[in-house]
Write a structure and sequence with these properties.
Layout: H1 39-51, H2 72-88, E1 92-94, E2 104-107, E3 116-126, E4 130-135, E5 145-150, E6 152-158, E7 164-170, H3 172-184, H4 195-205
Antiparallel strand pairs: 1-2, 2-3, 3-6, 4-5, 6-7
The chain binds zinc ion.
Length: about 210
């Protein structure tokens, strides 16, 4: 039986080396789902990602405006978000990631459930308990970094018809919702991680504005 070589202890970690965990496949993280796709689904994912703004696009740093009219423009935007989220095989997508500065995002943390659309969402309560876990982002391809989030959140918002909704979320759905809320304020996971993880992420992002894999 082959023996796995033991990990060297006290391993030096030069700052210019990106640790394998940053690019290796992970479990579902942030708004990125880890799943092997067939060739057709992979092609759809790439087309969708090409329509999602990628770091350092300035739209990702802008604050979105409240939505006041629940009109056909909003319906179209929601349809586009849901369509791209599905094709990108993501867990959540915010309008700012399409360069649209309006306060709406879609969540789909469970692929077997319908997506949830939240318009003008507000975090009204966050648990004292906070959990640090790895997150990825559809706008930061190839980056997975630790982010601390509330374990449970209460969010008040409106649905696409303008009805009030209140959601109590826990675990992964709570994490994805906090990630998307941040997008509406121009905040990225780079701003919420450790200095070391941020440095490594920027090293991944810097050399290739377009990642083809
Ligand atoms: Zn994101």
């Amino acid at each position: 039986m082959p023996v796995r070589p033991s990990e060297p202890t006290g391993r030096p970690s030069p700052s210019n080396v990106v640790s394998a965990s940053k690019i290796a496949p992970m479990s579902d993280a942030g708004e990125v789902r880890d799943e092997k796709l067939d060739a057709e689904a992979e092609a759809r994912r790439r087309v969708a990602l090409a329509q999602i703004r990628q770091y350092p696009d300035p739209a990702l740093r802008m604050k979105a405006h409240d939505i006041e009219s629940f009109d056909v423009d909003l319906t179209r935007l929601v349809e586009q978000l849901e369509h791209l989220l599905g094709d990108a095989n993501g867990l959540g997508l915010a309008a700012t990631q399409l360069g649209v500065l309006r306060r709406v995002f879609v969540l789909r943390p469970d692929p077997d459930e319908e997506s949830k659309v939240l318009v003008n969402p507000r975090l009204v309560e966050g648990s004292d308990e906070r959990i640090t876990d790895d997150e990825g982002c559809l706008s930061l391809q190839g980056v997975v970094i630790p982010v601390e989030r509330h374990e449970r959140v209460t969010i008040e918002a409106q649905d696409p018809e303008g009805n009030d909704v209140r959601l109590e979320l826990e675990g992964l759905p709570a994490r994805v919702a906090q990630h998307e809320l941040d997008h509406l304020d121009g905040i990225l996971i780079l701003d919420r991680t450790t200095p070391d993880a941020r440095r490594e992420a920027l090293a991944v992002l810097r050399p290739q504005p377009v990642v083809v894999r």
